[in-house]
Amino acid sequence: MTNDSNPEDRNQTSPNTPRRRGGRSRTAGDGPAPVAQPPFAHHHRWFAPTRAVSDDHLEAIHIASLSVLQDVGIDVLNPQARKLLIEAGAMGTADADRIRFDPEMVMACVASVPSEFDLHARNPAHTVTLGGDNVVFSAVASPPNVSDAHGGRRTGNQRDFQNLVRLSQHLNAIQIHGGYPVEPADVHPSVRHLHATFDLLTLSDKAVNAYSLGAERNQDCLEMVRIARGLTDAEVETETSIFTIINTSSPLRLDIPMCQGIMEYAKRNQASVITPFTLAGAMAPVTLAGAVAQQNAEALAGIALSQIVRPGSPVVYGGFTSNVDMKSGSPAFGTPEYMQSAMLGGQLARRYGFPYRSSNVNAANAVDAQAAYESVFALWGAVMGGANLVFHGAGWLEGGLRASFEKMVIDADLLQMVAKFLQPLVVDDATLALDAIAEVGPGGHFFGTQHTQDRYRSAFFAPMISDWRNFETWEEAGSPTADQKAAALVPTLLDEYQKPPMDDAILAELTEFVARRVSEGGVATDF
Amino acid sequence: MTNDSNPEDRNQTSPNTPRRRGGRSRTAGDGPAPVAQPPFAHHHRWFAPTRAVSDDHLEAIHIASLSVLQDVGIDVLNPQARKLLIEAGAMGTADADRIRFDPEMVMACVASVPSEFDLHARNPAHTVTLGGDNVVFSAVASPPNVSDAHGGRRTGNQRDFQNLVRLSQHLNAIQIHGGYPVEPADVHPSVRHLHATFDLLTLSDKAVNAYSLGAERNQDCLEMVRIARGLTDAEVETETSIFTIINTSSPLRLDIPMCQGIMEYAKRNQASVITPFTLAGAMAPVTLAGAVAQQNAEALAGIALSQIVRPGSPVVYGGFTSNVDMKSGSPAFGTPEYMQSAMLGGQLARRYGFPYRSSNVNAANAVDAQAAYESVFALWGAVMGGANLVFHGAGWLEGGLRASFEKMVIDADLLQMVAKFLQPLVVDDATLALDAIAEVGPGGHFFGTQHTQDRYRSAFFAPMISDWRNFETWEEAGSPTADQKAAALVPTLLDEYQKPPMDDAILAELTEFVARRVSEGGVATDF
Q1: Which are the contacts of B514, defined by CB distance < 8 A and separation ≥ 6?
Q2: CB distance A425–B75 less than 8 Å?
Q3: SS3 A136
Q4: So what's the pLDDT on residue A21?
Q5: How many residue pairs from chains A and B have C-beta atoms closer than 8 A?
Q6: B482 near B465, Cβ under 8 Å?
Q7: Per-residue pLDDT tens for B309-330?
């Protein structure tokens, strides 16, 4: 029923990646030992997020964004959205795009946003909470290209899409999908959302995203998630089960499909992550305060629309302000400016009581030191800035133009490191270890003590990638660099992947739904 | 007068690195344009450091370390140090190593430590302040091995030492030397400190370190710095001009040369950075709270000694707790445990009002993604943990067993990124840019605005290494990875290096001092 038959009939991965054997059960002698991963877990921030500016300056940014909304306004390209906004007190006319927002109306909308909500997965163990002190990591979303070490860089396709979904399911560090981990460009756009969402819901049991590319797609994907979760129409509205990323068309525009996405999902109590793409120096002022003020104005406009449609519907405030490289005009990520913007975005989100989204991003063209340091700087900005959702958590390369299998594995290790950092440092008699210190005494060694022996196996983070062997041993092993180690792990992890179970009746209903919608021709592609 | 004649007579670098042309003046057509670097600057933390534990837990760790000092005690191997400690109220006997510390005596010593002090460089523009909200970056110190992309890995030697000193001088991100950026193992240990300090003081004008390997070395190095700065004996005691790293011999020991270093430099008002090397699971408890409690006990013991010798003498509290890899026993760095320990160390230092030292470290064997991500995680722990001195800031690889030319260049870029992050986000009418936002309006573009044109050249951090070109352009340029770009920059940077001027009389005095001390045979090597 997909363009390329059922995934389980296709045991062949990319011709350029080693063959995988599907999710069969493993027996002794069946191959290498499973890659050790910490189990799927929920993470909580134990520290106060970093405040990027003083309270006075935060207020100045808040006021500036309200003044942008009131004095400049937002072009809202969707007539139905304009109608709802005007009925709610925004200033504008039905036949002109420009909508100006009264500050009090905006703040009334802000007040009804839930500070946290659950995003339900097909597997209840994989349901996550967005907001509060929760930190959730998603897979990369939406690159048009994909690469692996064996096959190089290529246009996104369904086979790589499916393998990245499998990897996202198998890597415990990845808690939710971000969307399509790579665009399956070989599936026709009219039915792509049907096949891709079928794959996401059957190859994985983690929470999923729908692209806002017209209301019908939002509706189809929600219906598929409803079926997959075995819920009634009424039930799905009590349990947020899908989210959509809303990128404002910066500066200061909400386009038609984005308005439709907000309205469709607010109406059904599903989540919108409203994320202006305010690249300082291009779509936003070259100064960060102005770029973030504009980000804030655009986010508040989208959030206001969601709350007008349904007060209390779940939304996330997305911060994505970065800067362009002023030499090439290319976007830069994981820069010092990106870090400050990420922290400032979080401070604004907390001012309003919104869940906050930031990202794990970089602009590197290879899985090299640059990819790694830009990613960790981005994580630093996100995590210390109080992000509840770290979007594009694993697999993003090349400023989002490419998904990388190896980067996804390395990123999963980075996320596991952050997750371990998010486990609070325990201080009690057992961890203060005064008896062990006295027992060992000056000049001794702790390894042999009972205190160490009782704990050493699980005391410390154990990485998938980092190589801590001494140089000679590492050299004898072929001097593997981190990207090479990740490349070696990709087929192993795909081999270890287990397809999560799905009830036969649900699978039949889901299959029937996709078949029917495909036979109807899917949806128009002239959005 | 050095083993290998005057550096300026030796225009040949390592046989494995490209030839450098020394510090001659540059004219048009003389080679590639200088590598763009931000100028040497002083950095201040604008945010509150992250608190690793609650105040109650911090107090529990403090009390635990006082109890270790009182009940277990420290083996102080130097009789003179024991004598001073016992006279000041510590419990022990002259003929046994073990010294136990009364908590009140320790806290009285804590009270006299200056919360910040200036570390003077030969060039006053390179003098730095340690403590308060200052953040200072040093070069790597003390690896026994060195590598570059062309010559591979080799034992440390004077030629590479000198080139790393030149690079440390030329890279503005590096504010002070850490010690020897690689051990010049081909210079005899009896005179190594003389030749190496001569090189540090003549090839560079940034602040320097002396190794505490016996009191005579401390004295020789201080004398050389006094000469280089043109000060009298009395004057050098009013201006801290050199520092030494004191590593306690964990667990719970202060060895003879470390005691001598503390005493020699406290006596002369020079700085000791007291840094226990408490590797959790090996030289310290496997639990971080206990490892840091032991770190704190050891640091307090060393600091107490410094303040007994001279109340108010400058010291820095060093945190270096990390964990071992429980599979191989190798030390691991830049781990989640390292980050938490770095933050906890800072919180303890602030509790006492001490300047705080942390480090930029990793355990990678190559200049790959691992080297980069472990380094940035370490920087994250250090900078957010409130480090005033980020030691080993540039060039460290392989858990400190190797200095890397390429890693030094990449690290300099990382430090420049952190330095830019440490510039506060400016919020005022000009940066909020409401006029520019109104001028551009919905759907416009900011690049052409006057607001952007006035600022774009210097608006954003401009990296030495990060490659933000699109994939096609980058591929046409030969697909250079970050380590390859750094390798290409090394000879350029060495070529751009300018030897800082030194007064002829001072150079003559320094040269004469070294010649005399060398002719005397230097110092004994049986420390």
Answers
A1: B1, B194, B195, B198, B224
A2: no
A3: strand
A4: 40
A5: 401
A6: yes
A7: 999 999 999 999 999 987 888 8
Structural domains in chain B, CATH included, are: 1-422+461-527 (3.20.20.480), 425-458 (no CATH)
Query: In this structure, how many other beta carbons lie within 10 angstroms of the beta carbon of residue A327?
Result: 9
Asked whether the predicted pLDDT for residue B378 surpasses 80, the reply is: yes
- Helix (H) or strand (E) segment spanning residue A394: strand A389-394
Q: Specify whether the CB–CB gap between B249 and B255 falls below 8 A.
A: yes
User: How far is the alpha carbon of B264 from chain A, nearest alpha carbon, in Å?
Assistant: 24
ipTM confidence score: 0.95
**Do strands A242-246 and A208-209 pair parallel, antiparallel, or not at all (unpaired)?**
parallel
Other Cβ atoms within 10 Å of A225 Cβ, number = 24
**SS3 sequence of A397-448:** EHHHCEEEHHHHHHHHHHHHHHHHHCCCCCCCHHHHCHHHHHHHCCCCCCCC
**B439 neighbors A286 (Cβ within 8 angstroms):** no
Report helix, strand or coil for A131.
strand
Q: How far apart are CA A412 and CA A490, in angstroms?
A: 12
Q: Which residue has the tokens 């760790």?
A: B61
CA distance A442 to B98: 9
By CA distance, what is B282's nearest residue in A? Answer: A446
Long-range pairs for A441-445: beta carbons < 8 A, 24 or more residues apart: A441/B72, A441/B251, A441/B252, A442/B72, A442/B73, A442/B74, A442/B75, A442/B97, A442/B98, A442/B251, A442/B252, A442/B253, A443/B75, A443/B249, A443/B251, A443/B252, A443/B253, A444/B251, A445/B282, A445/B283
Name which of A287, A442, A460 is nearest B75 (Cβ-Cβ).
A442
Pairwise CA distance, residues A337 & B423, whole Å: 10
Mean pLDDT per 10-residue section of chain A, whose length is 527 residues? 37 39 42 80 98 98 98 98 97 94 98 98 98 98 97 98 98 98 97 98 98 97 98 98 97 97 98 97 97 98 98 98 88 97 98 98 98 98 98 98 98 98 98 98 95 94 95 97 98 98 98 98 80
- Residue A161 contacts residue A196 (beta carbons within 8 Å): yes
Alpha carbon of residue B332 to chain centroid: 19
pLDDT at B27 over 70: no
The mean pLDDT of B514-526, rounded to a whole number, is 92
Comparing CB atoms, the residue among B323, B446, B469 nearest residue A283 is: B446
Pairing of β A315-318 and β A271-274: parallel
